[in-house]
Amino acid sequence: MRSHFPDSLVSDTALPDQKLSLLASALAASLCVLWGANTVAIKFSLSGLGPFTSAAVRFGISTLFLWAWAKMSGQSLRPAPGQLRHLLINSLLFTLQLSLVYVGFTLTSASRGALITNLQPFFLLFLAHFFLAGDRITFLKLIGLILGFAGAACIFLDRAAMSGDLMAGDLLLLAATFIWACSAAYTKHLVRSISSTQIVFYQLLFSIPLFALGAPLWDSPMVSRIDFGIVAAIAFQVVLTTSFAFVAWNRLLQAYGAVALHSFVFLIPVSGVLLAGVLLGEPITAMILLALVLITAGILTVQLGNRRDAAAILHGPPR
User: Fold this and answer.
1) In the chain, how many H helices and how many E strands?
2) Rounded CA separation 100/103 (Å)
3) Segment 108-116 mean pLDDT
4) Residue from 16, 13, 233, 208 nearest 105 by CA
5) Which residues, at least 6 apart from 256, have a Cβ–Cβ distance to it below 8 Å?
6) Helix or strand or coil: residue 6?
7) pLDDT tens digits for range 236-275
8) Cα separation of 305 and 95, whole Å?
9) What's the confidence (pLDDT) of residue 3?
């Protein structure tokens, strides 16, 4: 799983969208809030662990959880002939993206990071228009795209929080978000022939030795302190936002389809910003709030465009 919502949001097969039950709606909303809170957990864990150390620990344990779940649910993790190369490429993109994310979060705030990383759907929308058949930017999606990048501009124009470190961290996260969108576009191709469980498992598995190698080379120190809060932050990322969230979201995808679930993704930046202010005491400036409104509005507008596209596919043109 990604640092926020994962590429495994895509399902293994094309599924009809069904009306969400109250319980399913509550679960989907809760998962999106958890992914928003993940930025806070990452930022807090970096107060005691180096970025590559934190990533190696998180994804090392998460790989074991995912392997155990695959075994218990009877899913094969053995790739078919010719698939290993694609899985390796996908994992290298994952590792590069997460490396930039973890280093970026050492320089910028969780609230700014929550907003920047949630620009991923807009980058993906732009890339999909040119590289994925059938994914075109409609009028509504264009409006959402403009709103989203207007929100990004507000973050970088926030003079109340302007500093060299913040700007460097923001730019690292922006680069990471673009790489994440490239990886997500690539995943949309892979998921046609490879299960989402295999994709995520090998993303994690191949990244572990690279993060473990980067820890002694980059982190100084690898561990500055270990206490209950640091352990809880890592456990939150491993158990809830990586392992549980992946399983729960994929079960919801299988039952209800992607379009219905993605109505809740606007909660990710909202919860990320608000929890950063409440739990970490970060200042939420007027420009950050304006960026939050614009990015959230952009996500909702894009999702409305997706719903109209889905309706057109399901019901055909009006007669």
Assistant:
1) 13, 0
2) 5
3) 93
4) 233
5) 15, 17, 18, 19, 20, 24
6) coil
7) 999 998 888 888 888 887 787 776 777 788 899 999 999 9
8) 31
9) 45
Q: Of residues 129 and 224, which shows the higher confidence score? A: 224
What Cα–Cα distance (Å) separates residue 284 from each residue in 105, 161, 164, 288?
Answer: 17, 10, 19, 6
Cα(39)–Cα(26) distance, rounded to whole angstroms? 21
**50 versus 248: which is more confidently predicted?**
50
pLDDT, tens digit (0-9, with 9 covering 90-100), for 11-32: 444 445 567 788 988 999 999 9
Q: Which two tokens stand for residue 263?
A: 């109505």
105 close to 220: Cβ distance less than 8 angstroms: no
Q: How many CB atoms sit inside 10 A of residue 306's CB?
A: 21
Contacts of 160 (CB under 8 A, 6+ apart): 283, 285, 286, 287
Q: Answer yes or no: are the C-beta atoms of 244 and 61 closer than 8 Å.
A: no
Q: Is the pLDDT at 290 greater than 50, yes or no?
A: yes
Q: Return the SS3 of 223.
A: strand
Confidence of residue 310 (pLDDT cuts 50, 70, 90): low
Name every residue whose Cβ is closer than 8 Å to that of residue 141 and which is 6 or more positions away in sequence.
125, 301, 302, 305, 306
CA distance 243 to 239: 5
Beta bridge partners of 49: 223
Distance of alpha carbon 151 from alpha carbon 91, whole angstroms: 30
Contact at 8 Å (CB) between 249 and 261?
yes
Return the half-sphere exposure (C-beta side, CA atoms, 13 A cut-off) of residue 196.
Answer: 21
